[in-house]
Every structure is written in structure tokens, then in C-alpha cells.
Predict the 3D structure of the following.
Amino acid sequence: MDSVTALAFANATHSTVHALTVDYGQRHDREIIAAEVQAARFADRHDVLSLRRIGTLLEGSALTDTVPVPEGHYSDDTMRATIVPNRNAILANIAAGVAVARGLDAIVLGVHAGDHPIYPDCRPEFVTALQQLLSVANDHQVRVEAPFLNTDKAGILRVGLALGVDYAETWTCYQGRDRACGRCGSCVERLEAFSNIGVEDPLEYEL
């Protein structure tokens, strides 16, 4: 939800949009298929980068290792099992490198307020530090945009629906099964967002 809404936001605010999807060995790699569908609508170009072997090094996470995916709400401390070490710093720096190489002026990240309690690389301090790093790492300046940094999931959903995002063609679940589980933190937060704005989630769940 976060990434595709950020993509739709970029499409609405920038004249040229290049989408980047990274396969980092995540068990929920169905999101890559969903990314292809969304990029065909909202991006001028879409690249899928395979870093699948890096997942074997980022061990200990429920997303890249054999650790069970915790169920419950993101406010639960058990959700720390879904932290992938330094993931957003790795992905954002790759995106920035692509932006520099192609002469693009910004990278757009889907980090949001609901992630702040659990994920350090989604917090305002991270975005500020990333901007500072990119400012000294390259002669070509790349701006970091995080439009949802202080927005919750329901707020992101409202933006996405207004921009015409089809959430039936997205994948949020941390499990890599045929249907979304409806029980992992990511599913629970998504379902809560739809409930909070009084809209039915079009995705099919195991529940």
C-alpha cells in the first residue's frame, strides 16, 4: 500500500517517474508481481533489481529468514521480528544512485508514521540523515521526498483512492501464500485502515 501510493503520488507531482522494485529475498515476493501491475499504470519506466542473495546475509528477520511471521498489530513488540537490518537505507541508496545516473531530481519513499515505533529506518531522523548523506555523496543533488512521513495508514489510503489506486491489485501480506493471511501485522494494519475510512478492502483473505 505504501509504495504504490507513493508511486501514484510521484506520478501526480513529477513529470517523469521511474519505478524501482527490489527482490531482496523477501518471502512475500508476490509484491513484485503487484509492483509490475502498478508500475505499468503510474511509471514511465520500471526496473526490477535482483538482490535475492542479500537476503541470506540479512538473517534473523521474519521477512528474509525462516523466523515465523508474527501475528497481531504493529504496536505489538513482537513485530520487531519483521525488521530487515538496514533495509530502507540499502534500498534508498540504490534508488538514489539510479536517480543520479539518470539525472532525476528526487526519490520518493513510502515510509509513514505507523512504522515509526518499530522501524528506525522509517522515522523522520532517518529521512533527514539520508538527505544529508545524499547531499554530500553526489555532485548531482537528489531530493528525498517522504510524503507520508507524518501520515497514518488510513491517511495513505485516502490519498491513494483519490489518485485512483486499485488496491485489489496490491499485495501487503508478509506471508508468501496465494491469499493474504489477514493476521500478520501488515495485513492487520491494512484492514484497520480500510475499516477506519469505511471502505471495504477489495483484497481476498484467508480469514
